């Protein structure tokens, strides 16, 4: 099985733009706004599409995914349980050992400063959890 080459960033951005356009209504506005906030919080963020076209924001690992449902825009932080959330943004997937999510429903107001702080915390967590490359010991001679 061959692995598909990753799409260029401009192609991914265009596909996400198209997804937002197709959504329309309040979900499109909310999704577009959280996307802007993610880019403001981390200008080095990488947008990807995974799992049947789910938008994913990464920086040395996944920060969060963005999904849309009939009644909510869901932002799932894969390592959310390890992040401090003093503003209490996480309101979904609270029982798991790793993930935490924010469900934004029509009419909800997102604390934008706290959300950007959460994105930055996820970046710091990803960067700090990367282990340095292992040093290779001296080569051993093989004996027959």
Based on secondary structure, the structural category is alpha+beta
- Strand line-up in the sheet with most strands: 1-2-3-4-5
| Number of E-state strands | 5
Largest sheet: 5 strands, antiparallel
Helix-strand pattern, N to C? HHEEEEEH
Per CATH, the architecture is Alpha-Beta Complex
Number of helices: 3
Mean pLDDT: 85
Q: What gross morphology would you assign? A: globular
Task: Tell me the fraction of residues in β-strands, as a range.
Answer: 15-25%
Low-confidence stretches: none
Count structural domains: 1
List its traits.
alpha+beta; 3 helices; 35% helix; single chain; 144 residues; five-stranded antiparallel β-sheet; Aspartate Aminotransferase, domain 1
Q: Could you write a compact summary of the structure shown?
A:
The protein is an alpha+beta fold and 144 residues long. It has helices at residues 9-23, 25-41, 112-129, and strands at residues 46-50, 54-58, 62-68, 73-77, 100-104.
């Amino acid at each position: 099985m061959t692995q598909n080459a990753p799409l260029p960033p401009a192609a991914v951005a265009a596909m996400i733009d198209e997804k937002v356009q197709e959504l329309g209504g309040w979900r499109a506005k909310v999704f577009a706004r959280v996307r802007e906030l993610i880019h403001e919080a981390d200008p080095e963020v990488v947008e990807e599409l995974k799992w049947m076209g789910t938008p994913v924001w990464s920086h040395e690992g996944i920060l969060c995914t963005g999904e849309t449902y009939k009644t909510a825009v869901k932002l799932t932080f894969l390592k959310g349980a390890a992040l401090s959330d003093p503003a209490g943004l996480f309101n979904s997937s609270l029982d798991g050992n790793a993930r935490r999510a924010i469900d934004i429903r029509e009419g909800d107001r997102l604390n934008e400063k706290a959300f950007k702080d959460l994105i930055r915390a996820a970046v710091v967590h990803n960067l700090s959890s990367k282990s340095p490359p292992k040093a290779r010991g001296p080569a051993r001679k093989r004996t027959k």
